[in-house]
Amino acid sequence: MTDSHQQALPTDLGDTVAQALAEDLGEHDRNAALIEDPAQTTARIITQEAAIVAGTAWVNTVFAQLTDNVTIDWHVSDGARANSDTILCTLTGPTRALLSGERTALNFLQLLTGVANNTRDYVDRVAGTGTAIVDTRKTLPGLRSAQKYAVVCGGGRNHRFGQFDAYLIKENHLAAIGSLATAVARARANAPDLFLQVEVETIEQLDEALSADVDGVLLDNFPTHLLTRAVNKADAHRRRFRQQLLIEASGDIDLANVREIADTGVDQVSLGGLTKHVRAANLSLQFAG
Q: Within 13 Å of residue 35, how many CA atoms lie on the same side as its CB?
């Protein structure tokens, strides 16, 4: 196992876990109540497939919110690669608590590991190009911070978190405002220090964006030959004016063509599929018998 990773945990982790437990348990876990209260159990979480692990803190928090008496010994850390049939952790504690938390803990761990796996597939595909793989706001409601954490565990990077921490002026904003120049001018007047990126869909729009005061351009749904032309134009602009300018590609990008997109020289590729087209990892929690 390699590729261990350290990333700041989301501040809403505890609230997210509490909501998930309330959703599953309600006022009373009737199944766990069938178990004699003093009973103690040792269990293991095992991966049934090779995986990039993400979500260990969510598992810890699930059981910590149920009882102070569950001990979890992790054998692999977030961001690490685990082979199939690997024991990820060993849990020891009250049987009732282990049963009550099993589904919620696995839901988090399977989902976040799935996001990390998905991300790593793309990161590996563009290795050596210098192009970063980044996420978007296309996340499961209520789980954005968790999924963005998992993207980083998989070797990707985070785009803006929401609509408050950076500008990304897109086609509907432009349609509502009337012009790119007006949109950029208003953004700079309202929050001059925020990162300001504009989505463009044509070479003509790119020219307009480059003449405005922007920090980045998002080249959306460009065919490869036009994308190469657009990247060369944007790169020449930033070299000529010695300007920091982020060049990003997005739209209709998948594992089959992401390397081709990266080879055009874009700084990053953003993919909504990192967090919305996710297959949960195949994990199980098994009681020692």
A: 15
User: CATH classification of 13-124+278-287 is 3.90.1170.20, yes or no?
Assistant: yes
Q: What angle do CA 67, 64, 55 make, to 5 degrees?
A: 145
* CA triple 284-285-288, angle to 5 deg: 130
What does the alpha-carbon distance between residue 256 and residue 38 come to, in Å, rounded to a whole number?
Answer: 54
Instruction: Give the model confidence (pLDDT) of 64-115 as tens digits.
Output: 999 999 999 999 999 999 999 999 999 999 999 999 999 999 999 999 999 9
Q: How far apart are CA 138 and CA 179, in angstroms?
A: 26
Q: CA–CA separation, 1 vs 24, rounded Å? A: 33
Is the pTM of the predicted complex or chain greater than 0.90? yes
Q: Where are the domains of the chain?
A: 13-124+278-287, 129-276
CB contact at 8 A, 196 and 215: yes
Active-site residue set: 103, 138, 170, 199, 220
| Fold classified for 129-276 | TIM Barrel (3.20.20)
Using CA atoms, how far apart are residues 130 and 247, in angstroms rounded to an integer?
A: 12
